[in-house]
Design a protein that fits this description.
The protein has one helix at 31-44, and strands at 2-6, 11-15, 20-23. The chain is α+β, with helices and mostly antiparallel strands.
Amino acid sequence: MKFNYSTITRTLTVFGGNMTHIFDNVNESEILAHVANAKLKEATWRKRK
């Protein structure tokens, strides 16, 4: 997973294998928690048949 953080807009974008997660109004100290949250969502996400 890759992520991009904009200090101007305080937006964190996490690029996963199945989806892209966007978090608004994020402090720099919260980045690792949001990346872990995105990894959990990616692991539990199931594709519809």
